[in-house]
Specification:
The chain is of the alpha/beta class. It is built from 6 helices and 9 strands, in the order E-H-E-H-E-H-E-H-E-H-E-E-H-E-E. The strands form 2 sheets. The chain has a 7-stranded mixed beta sheet, covered by helices on one side. A two-stranded antiparallel ribbon has the order 8-9.
């Protein structure tokens, strides 16, 4: 079975991107990353890509008019590189119809909570979780849809919240869970084991 071709959209540090790169280089994941695209020129994920010989692309939203122009260019870039599955890793720009149509059920986002609880921008989520008094948190991997953080859930992984848990310690736990969940999701997708039915994902045997 040939390698799966991945494209990555990132706006931040790209910690989870590093986990995917490491798994590929260690031959634990039969995939290749065709490109990492960011809407921010100072995005550290682009530096990670360059360090590992992966094409790093800064796509400046200011160079485009309507939001759909940006999305159209994004789709063009990904299709030209044969991307089969798109990973959103800390990507902070809403995606419009051209992208969502082109990559329906082929774009995954990782979120640092057990959805549907604690939706929203990831930096705020850890504080919301701790402030709520929840005893368990974790991460959710889901297919991207027009409604933020509401797409069909592929996989989730939980972690306990201990007495005296800090933002940093919780973030560390959740990021460790994210890395495992992301690699699991890519593997299931590559094996053709994910079937979307409405807003649910069935994992086939």
């Amino acid at each position: 079975m040939p390698k799966i071709v991945l494209g990555v959209l990132a706006s931040t540090m790209g910690t989870d991107l590093q986990a995917v790169i490491d798994a590929i280089e260690a031959k634990q994941l039969d995939a290749e990353i065709a490109c990492v695209v960011s809407n921010r020129v100072d995005c550290f994920a682009l530096e990670r890509a360059k360090k590992h010989g992966i094409e790093a692309i800064f796509l400046n939203p200011k160079d485009f008019g309507a939001g759909e122009e940006f999305d159209g260019k994004l789709v063009q870039l990904l299709n030209a590189r044969g991307v089969e599955l798109v990973l959103l890793i800390g990507y902070n720009k809403f995606l419009g119809k051209p992208f969502l149509d082109a990559f329906k059920n082929r774009a995954m986002n990782i979120h640092p909570s057990l959805l549907p609880a604690f939706k929203g921008w990831y930096r705020d989520v850890y504080k919301q979780v701790l402030d709520s008094g929840a005893k368990v948190s974790g991460c959710s991997l889901f297919f991207v849809t027009p409604e933020p953080d509401s797409g069909p859930i592929i996989a989730q992984r939980a972690c306990k919240i201990l007495e005296g848990e800090s933002l940093e310690s919780l973030k560390e736990k959740v990021q460790a869970a994210e890395k495992k969940t992301l690699l699991l999701g890519i593997g299931l997708f590559k094996a053709g084991k994910l079937k979307v039915e409405g807003n649910k994902v069935r994992v086939l045997d």
